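Supplementary Methods S3. Complex input for the ribose-5-phosphate-bound model.
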Amino acid sequence: MIILGGSASTELAEKVAKEMGAEPGRLELKRFPDGEKYVRVLDDVAGKDVAVVQSLYRTPDEYLFEYFLLVDALRDLGARSITGITPYLAYARQDSRFNPGEAVSCTATAKLIEAAGTTSFITVDTHLHRLENVSKVFRVPARNISAMPLLGQYALENLSPRKPVVIGPDAEAEPWAAATAKELDAEHTFFRKKRITSSKVEIDTGEVDLEGRDAVLADDIISTGGTIAEAAVACKKKGARKIYALCTHPVLATGALERLHAAGVEKVIGTDTIPSPISKVSVAPILARALKSKP
Ligand code: R5P
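Predicted complex, serialized as structure tokens:
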């Protein structure tokens, strides 16, 4: 199998190739002076199985279009199969038409990924709360794997939380909290969240007792940090000793980390689905495992 990394995920693709004992494929990627992208595949891919790793963060439109050009070229060049891996699937949160006339960006993105020539698809902890399942969005075989066990293992080995309670900051995060808690051999629960604006939320903790215990908050995305910051403040009020935050996708809008530390979060840990200063956990092993097992 040939593993190719688009410009969003070159390092991650190299790690996945290493995990699989494969050489990373070679690409030439550049931008023309007029702003257009240039993509050239330097390996002979005819008749080969190819995987393309391209996370859709920060400049998702640019990375999505580069993905489109790359996969279209691979199909033209005769690749036998093309597995698309977008560890962070942008646009997944707009998975419904919430107001009349809105684009359903999630399904539109899936259509574009498929139209390029993707024959199977893998993503990580995607935010499909209303659709539940990634295979409801894609017609090609699609899988959503979870980084939470890796984050839980990291927390166990590096944070050593005392009498931990793993908490999902909202009801949708409950499965992520459960998967993390399993690695820590800890209890888990979840809060209830009401979103006021895109950066402001209100948290209802319910009956949880955190007196003298460490709280480990687990969520898919940290964007503005509003959700985790409010959850951290609520944990402190409930008597938590230390507060840690784990997330798969450190989107990290400007000021998010400062906001979390100001709210009392001791450490914030994320994965390399989005490269960032807190991306301490690599998803390469789970991507390699998914690629080795047939969809
Ligand atoms: C929302 O339901 C997600 O699971 C995250 O909680 C949310 O995207 C985090 O965003 P922010 O950091 O801006 O609160």
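The pocket of ribose-5-phosphate is lined by residues 127, 169-170, 172-173, 219-227 (CB under 6 Å). The mean pLDDT is 95.
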